[in-house]
Amino acid sequence: MKVVNSRDVAQYAGCSQSTVSRVMNSDPRISRTTRARVLEAARALGYDMKRSSGCWNIGVVTGFDPECASGYYASMLAAVCREIKRRGLHVELLFQDELGNCDYGCCRGIIDLYQTPQQLLCDTFTVPVVTVNNHCRKLDNIRSVVSDSKAGMKLAVQYLLSLGHRDIRFISAEGKSSEEMKPTRRWQGFLEAMNDAGVKEPERYGIFFSEGKHTSQELIKTALAQAVSQGCTAFITVNALHTPKISSAFHALQIKIPEEVSLIDWEYEGVSEYLEPPRTAIAVDYPRVAAEAVDLLTEILEKKNAVFNRTVPPKLIVRKSCAAVRQE
């Protein structure tokens, strides 16, 4: 079978070979119309699209939300970009709210970091897609890699139980319905771990702030004070960007960590270890999630029988914010 080259694409698209080269290298001087015509020709002919450097373009979908500048999204984006570059590939950033109108150029495959609705991914991309922390519905060109927060939550609860804690509260800034639908299943992990420990009706140990990062400090203080008055001796906070507010609320209430209550956070890279005291935390293994996502995308591109969903266990980083229950 004849190998399709750039001359064939140029002839099919009615342009020069240099124009094909510029399109493959995402040259901004090429008009949107010309780019679309060249890419359509390349796909129709089965042209092996690469940059002049010989490496593939891998599109990475993220968002404009301010949360993308720090915390989970920033850490995941950095890890995925590092992994793509480490393998000699090229990163092309795509923004979710522009997908309907964007030109994803000569991307060989897509990694979605922003939990984009799968129908939108299907409607936008004809190339393989790997979505992170968003279970796929076994669609032909979509696979997923999920950080198994359910397992991480069980580690956290079991650690607190080993220190003698029995009244352990789960704190989420995303609302109960959102937690119940999360593919990472951290709420379900908490419930199962508490059930396994013989705690009756563990659902009553959930504290949910549906306002997220906009939750008022007074509301947080009230909820924490009420829990402590009811006998709570340990808390698990599952939103990294919520950590400073929780810490501030305990300080305002003059509740000492870990002397009076133990606290496990979701790891906030560059922050958790420098809080006073340094936080014990459930940490997403960002490098491994990134490596699994690129591995999975590569397997699809190489026509291997890739699984639909992969899971990566998080880690429990033990620091100084937890202590054994004081004996009265």
What is the topological layout?
Elements lengths: L5 H8 L3 H8 L7 H14 L11 E6 L8 H16 L3 E6 L11 E6 L5 H7 L4 E4 L9 E6 L1 H14 L5 E5 L3 H6 L4 H11 L9 E3 L8 H13 L4 E4 L5 H10 L9 E5 L13 E4 L2 H16 L7 E4 L2 E3 L11
Parallel strand pairs: 1-2, 1-3, 3-4, 4-5, 5-11, 6-7, 6-8, 8-9, 9-10
Antiparallel strand pairs: 10-12
Helix pairs in contact: 1-2, 1-3, 4-11, 6-8, 9-10
Task: Note down, in words, how this protein is organized.
By secondary structure, the chain is α/β, with parallel strands linked by helices. The chain has 3 domains: 1-48, 434 Repressor (Amino-terminal Domain); 49-147 and 288-312, Response regulator (Rossmann fold), CATH 3.40.50.2300; 149-283, Rossmann fold (3-Layer(aba) Sandwich), CATH 3.40.50. It contains 11 helices and 12 strands. The protein has helices spanning 6-13, 17-24, 32-45, 71-86, 118-124, 149-162, 176-181, 186-196, 217-229, 243-252, 286-301, and strands at 57-62, 90-95, 107-112, 129-132, 142-147, 168-172, 206-208, 234-237, 262-266, 280-283, 309-312, 315-317. A 6-stranded parallel β-sheet has the order 2-1-3-4-5-11. Helix 1 (6-13) crosses helix 2 (17-24) and helix 6 runs parallel beside helix 8. The chain is elongated and about 85 Å long. The relative contact order is 0.12.
What's the pLDDT, averaged over the residues?
88
The H/E string reads: HHHEHEEHEEHEHHEHEHEEHEE
| Number of H- or I-type helical stretches | 11
Structural class: alpha/beta
Number of domains: 3
The Cα radius of gyration reads 24 Å
Shape: elongated
**Poorly predicted regions:** none
* The CATH homologous superfamily of the largest domain: Response regulator
